[in-house]
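A quick aside before the break. I want you to see a complete sequence-to-structure record at least once, exactly as it would be stored in a machine-readable document. Don't worry about memorizing anything.
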Amino acid sequence: MKRASLTLQILMGVAVPFVLVTLLIGAIAYFSADDEISEVYDSQMISSAQQLWKLARTEEDPQRLRFSDNDMGLSHEDEAALDEYSSWRSFRVWRKGQLIMISDTAPSATAPIGNSGFTTVRRQGKSWRVFTYRRPSDHIIVEVSERLQAREEISRRIVWGVSLPLLMVLPVIILAVWLGIRWGLRDLRGFAAQLRRRSSQDLRPMEADGMPAELAPLPESMNHLLNQLSLSREQERLFTDNAAHELRTPLAALIVQAEVARNAQTEADRLRSLDALLGGARRAGRLLDQLLTFARISHASLETSPVNLHDIARETLGELYAKAHAKGVELVLTGETEAIVVANPALLRILLGNLMDNAIKYSSAGLRVETHIAHKDGSVELVLRDHGPGIAEAEREKVFARFYRVKDNAQTGSGLGLAIVRTICDLLGAQIRLSAPAQGQGLCVRILFSS
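That is the input. The structure line, written in tokens, reads:
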């Protein structure tokens, strides 16, 4: 698809309104001039009729009133001027019913117009403006006529006189605007050239010094994107380094345990080595599963829908019941049974599964893991409490970092569980907070969902 030219768009944005304004000015000038010219010419026709009436009233000899344009004794230049415009005007004068005065361009065979004042008539296919002046006391009728084409011609000349210079200067204006646009977009072209010279590894902020205020949002947005890409790349690098480090340890342990099992001298030693090998394989599988989960949610397309948080929590507890029962940990779910939140069901199950799995892991036999759901200030809050060792206040924010392990922690793990929980909360727009319970030891995890 051919891309539109910004320069052309701006030029069209200037030229089209300019032409429309010129046409509007022409239209206003035409109607205004036509109105003014009509008033002036009508006034002249009335004045001419009065002069002809005075002449007809004072002159007694009708023969002396009959003359033509050729009898005026005009110079050659004056006759040329008269010939050009005389055909547009005419007059006739009657006294006591007898035509006593007529111009060369007036019809002689027709009677005067019946009404006094102005009238528009057709003569030989032309429109004429006629003024009839009647003086019954003198038995005189004066008729002065003028072709409407004369007025229209003058109106058109006025319009062209106003509009033509504007239209003639339009190319000059377009050229000036084009040069101005080219000059004004020079910083944008320089910015684009600077961006083209960048390699895919160079995510430094773009230089935007001197960029006009109207174009400043473009480099600002680009630099914001580059900054986000740089942070994302750094996080991916750290994740890859940490993942490689975390996987190296259990894999090395698996190799050692396999060697020990192969070289075991007795059946008891071989069984102990195989048990250790099986435990290492399970830890490696757990780490790999966490890594895959984290990678999946980091690049997941978020499709949300209204879901019942209580139902999801009950299903998750059912999936973990066997593990909790084997350890002697009791799982309890209380609170609202109709707690609707807008979330992705799959991500919600991963979030609750990680929280409850951690709670079971850090709880001793005979203890409880309690999950409570309630409405709070128009939202839905989930509170999960265990009775384990808890997390020191200084480390409650650090545990959300990937591969972070609480100091003096005897439990094995990858350090990804709470990082996954925080990532899902960010994706769902939920708020998570860790705190100590009001009574006893353990950890309280509070998640506030938008309902």
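Two observations worth writing down. The first strand starts at residue 89 and ends at 95. The first helix runs from residue 6 to 58. We'll return to this after the break.
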